[in-house]
Design brief:
By secondary structure, this protein is α/β, with parallel strands linked by helices. The chain has helices at about 1-10, 45-60, 75-85, 90-100, 120-125, and strands spanning about 15-20, 25-30, 35-40, 70-75, 105-110. Helices cover about 40% and strands about 30% of the residues. The model has no long low-confidence stretch (mean pLDDT about 85). It holds the Pfam family RNase_H.
Length: about 130
Amino acid sequence: MTQIIEEKYPHHIKIFTDASKSPNGTGFAFIENNKTSMFKLPHETSIFSAESLGIQNAISHAMTLVPEEILIISDSLSALLALKNPYPKNEIILYIQEKLSNSRKKIEFLWVPSHTGISGNELAELTRQPTKQ
């Protein structure tokens, strides 16, 4: 799968996102070019919000990058589908949509199933573990 992503998006900067929620806490991580950013969230944060905040932060990071083509890779199908909703009720999704509409960058999204051996996604899953503590 990693090879297919590289072949289909050879010039894109790839940013992987993931989030987790457990009895010990909630958090998310994103990874770009082997650089990891991890964030703890309030315990009551839903997994949907955590995944959406991961995508939002990946987009904010993407805005600081020089290349114009960005691919954000997430295993959260619900968050990615929410981004396609023309009338979102979720404030995080609405904020992301506004940020995207004001951007000159070409930001695309790709859903990947979790735990499938996709290197960046697996790394995102591993690096978010400390956010649970």
